[in-house]
Structures are given as C-alpha cells and as structure tokens.
C-alpha cells in the first residue's frame, strides 16, 4: 500500500507524458522542387527601351528567347535600331569566353522596315553586347555602302553605341 500511495501522484503525470509523446506527430514538410536558375538568354528575354550614350531615348526593342537545346538557343531582336528584326544563334560557352555575351551577329544584306538593304554587325566585347543588371550596352556597325545607290537612299555609316534597358 505504501508503494501505491507513493507513486499515486506520479501516475497522472506519467499518463499525461506518455499521451503527449504518442499524440504529437512531426509535421512532414513538403519537398519543394527546386526551380532551375534561368539561362542567360531567358534572362535577356523581354522589352527594352534604348537610349543613346547621353541618355536620350531612341526606340523600343523586344528580345525574344527561342529555346533550341541546353547549349544552343536563339534570340530574336525585334525593332533593333528602330528598323530591323533578325534572329541570331547564341551558344554557351561562347567562343570569346565572355560570360554574359549577347551575340548580335553579322548580317549582309539585312532589310530594314522600308525594304532597304544594309550591312549590320556587332562584335564581341567584355563590356559591350553583354547583359548585366538588366542592361545591354550595344555596340554595332551599320552601313549601306554597298546598296545606297541602287536603293536610292543617302549614304549612311555608323559605329553605333546605345544602351538597352530592360523594362519590368
């Protein structure tokens, strides 16, 4: 009897502790699938406002990402320099090893919105034609030297520099 009286006070505490132990279940946290980091060209995809190097607005441009494979994609430049639409293959890694290079390519001839012919090309550079912080400093050469007489247009040549800023 002494034994029962001694542990009589501990019995409710023991029962409460055991019931709490078995009644609590660890919540299973759902496994959230990791979203892969977007590729450079997926980040480049979007609408841009383009300015000259002094900050004067020039035109709107769209860059559209076209998925091809894991290492090769294409970008379609719409309204480039306010008058051209073209598609350029982008590869990773690029031949120049510039990590954020956005290739403009070389186009001869390329037709503008008025069906006039041009020669257009953009080189590779560690600063120009590279996507950084939603900005692409553009550098390209454009001329109509081969076509201006037959297209009946004034001669034009430009070593152009512009700043494209992505819009959100």
How would you describe this protein?
It is a single chain. The relative contact order is 0.14. The chain has one domain (41-166). It starts with a helix and ends with a strand. The mean pLDDT is 86. The longest helix is centred in the first third of the chain and has 14 residues, at 10-23. The protein contains 3 helices and 8 strands. Strand 3 (72-80) and strand 4 (84-91) form a beta hairpin. It has 168 residues and is α+β, with helices and mostly antiparallel strands. The chain has an 8-stranded antiparallel β-sheet.
Q: What's the SSE blueprint?
A:
Layout: H1 2-8, H2 10-23, H3 40-44, E1 46-52, E2 57-67, E3 72-80, E4 84-91, E5 105-111, E6 117-122, E7 135-143, E8 157-166
Counting DSSP H or I runs of 4 or more residues, the number of helices is: 3
Order of helices and strands: HHHEEEEEEEE
- Helix fraction, binned, reads 10-25%
Rg calculated over all Cα atoms: 31 Å
| Beta-strand residue fraction | 35-45%
Note poorly predicted spans: none
Q: Classify the secondary structure makeup into a structural class.
A: alpha+beta
Counting DSSP E segments of at least 2 residues, the number of strands comes to: 8
The geometry reads as rod-shaped
Largest sheet: 8 strands, antiparallel
Average pLDDT value?
86
What is the terminal-to-terminal distance?
81 Å
* Total domain count: 1
Neighbour order of strands in the largest sheet: 4-3-2-1-8-7-6-5
């Amino acid at each position: 009897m002494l034994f029962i009286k001694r542990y009589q006070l501990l019995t409710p505490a023991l029962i409460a502790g055991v019931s709490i132990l078995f009644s609590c279940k660890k919540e299973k946290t759902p496994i959230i699938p990791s979203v892969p980091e977007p590729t450079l060209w997926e980040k480049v995809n979007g609408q841009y406002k383009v300015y000259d190097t002094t900050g004067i607005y020039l035109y709107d441009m769209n860059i559209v990402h076209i998925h091809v494979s894991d290492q090769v994609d294409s970008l379609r430049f719409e309204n480039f320099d306010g008058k051209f639409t073209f598609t350029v293959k982008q590869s990773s890694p690029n031949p120049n090893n510039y990590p954020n290079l956005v290739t403009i390519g070389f186009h001869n001839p390329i037709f503008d919105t008025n069906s006039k012919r041009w020669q257009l090309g953009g080189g590779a550079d560690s600063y120009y034609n590279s996507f950084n912080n939603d900005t692409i400093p553009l550098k390209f050469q454009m001329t109509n030297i081969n076509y201006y007489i037959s297209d009946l247009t004034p001669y034009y040549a430009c070593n152009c520099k512009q700043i494209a800023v992505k819009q959100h």
